[in-house]
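Hi everyone, sorry if this is the wrong subforum. Our group has a chain we'd like a structural model of before ordering constructs, and none of us has done structure prediction before. Sequence below.
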Amino acid sequence: MVKEFRAFIARGNVLDLAVAVIIGAAFGRIVTSLTEDVIMPIIGRVLGGLDFSSYFVALGPVPAALAGSTDYLALKKAGVPLLGYGAFLTQAVNFVIVAFIIFMLVRTVNRMAGVFEREARTADQAAPEPTDVALLREIRDELRARPSS
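Answer:
Right subforum, don't worry. Here is the predicted structure as tokens:
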């Protein structure tokens, strides 16, 4: 079993997956920052508030010390049940951005693969036949043309 596990880990696919997960995590942080620090404040400003993450509905009693507070994280830390639709909306926008970027990436890769395939086909058709292959074909054709004895 150890040998099988070592062979599994040594495969290129597993290493590619590990690299993809690491890059994906870093990319996720970039998109999260883009969403929370750039896009959501603009949307919040248009909708009348500056901090979109502060949009929530308290579903339970709020401690007296936090009465009237709009600090989502402080209320959540205090154990107040909250319906944080602002945080959810932020994550939904984050997902749409990531999905769109991945779509554009896959689309570009597919187009480039098509270009490379066409170039390869064109190169194969335009490549001159080596002289030794042409000579062997001529010999074969001559041998086929001879009458059998």
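For your construct planning: The beta strands are 57-58, 82-83. DSSP finds five helices and two strands in the chain.
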